[in-house]
Amino acid sequence: CRKCRLWQSRTHAVPGEGPADAHIMFIGEGPGREEDLQGRPFVGPAGQLLNELLAEAGLRRDEVFISNIVKCRPPDNREPLPDEVAACRDYLNGQIAVINPKVICTLGRPALHALVDPGLSITKEHGQPRQVSGIVVVPLYHPAAALHRQDLRPQLVADMAKLRLILDRVLCQR
User: Fold this and answer.
1) Is residue 64 a contact partner of residue 22, using CB atoms and an 8 Å limit?
2) Strand pairing report for 103-107 and 24-28
3) How far apart are the C-alpha atoms of 169 and 14, rounded to whole Å?
4) 30, 92, 114, 117: which has the fewest Cβ within 10 Å?
5) Confidence of residue 166 (pLDDT cuts 50, 70, 90)
6) What letters, b where the CB count within 10 A reaches 16 and e where it falls short, cover 14-37?
7) How far is CA 94 from CA 67, 104, 114, in A?
8) How far is Cα 55 from Cα 125, in angstroms, rounded to an integer?
9) Looking at 60-112, which runs of residues are DSSP E strands?
10) C-alpha to C-alpha distance for 71 and 94, rounded to whole angstroms
11) Distance in angstroms (rounded) separating the CA atoms of residues 49 and 167
């Protein structure tokens, strides 16, 4: 893909991974250094924390779909720019359409803004489910934020516990 400038510095595109029939998707902002090198999402330190958080919620990585709003690493791990998010939007929309998850967890502010509303604050919205186009969306802090700010970790753990209850409720409605 060469729809935006990010292709120029990538090693690998990182489209996402997980089962095509996953009930839940986790969507972050973009690949980091390790993800770019391996071509897989959330394999660096934030991914290791995400794996721990999944276990806290009674989930396994191999049963969830993990992706990002952009599929190539932004330089210096900066946030994706609006035109880069727009360039990748068809890919993300296609993933959501194919997987048809019951729940999407946005990881961090950029994913919350891209998928729900650019006017929302992750600080105010984290852990609060809402319906978006028939899908329950649960905003969560990005695991990398909890690595940089240890005070966020207990809240992220609590939100993951709440996520388990939300997911159970949504799956019982099927």
Assistant:
1) yes
2) parallel
3) 31
4) 117
5) very high
6) bbbbbeeebbbbbbbbbbbebbbe
7) 12, 14, 15
8) 23
9) 65-68, 103-107
10) 13
11) 20
User: Among 89, 171, 111, 161, which residue's Cα sits nearest to residue 136?
Assistant: 171
Determine contact, residues 71/2, Cβ cutoff 8 Å.
Answer: no
pLDDT (0 to 100) of residue 55: 94
For residues 72 and 116, give the distance between their C-alpha atoms in angstroms, rounded to a whole number.
Answer: 21
Instruction: Pick the closest to residue 23 from 63, 54, 62 (CA basis).
Output: 63
Is residue 163 within 8 Å of 140, Cβ to Cβ? yes
Q: Euclidean distance between the first and final Cα of the chain, in Å? A: 37
C-beta of residue 138 within 8 angstroms of C-beta of residue 106: yes
Q: Edge-to-edge, what's the strand order for the sheet holding 130-132? A: 65-68, 24-28, 103-107, 135-140, 130-132
pTM for this prediction: 0.96
CB 28 within 8 A of CB 107: yes
Interatomic CA distance for residues 109 and 43, integer angstroms? 20
Q: For residue 142, with 0-12 CB atoms within 10 Å meaning exposed, 13-18 middle and 19 or more buried, which class applies?
A: buried
Q: Give the number of residues written for the chain.
A: 174
CB atoms within 10 A of CB 162: 17
pLDDT digits (tens, 9 = 90+) for 60-79: 999 999 999 999 999 998 99
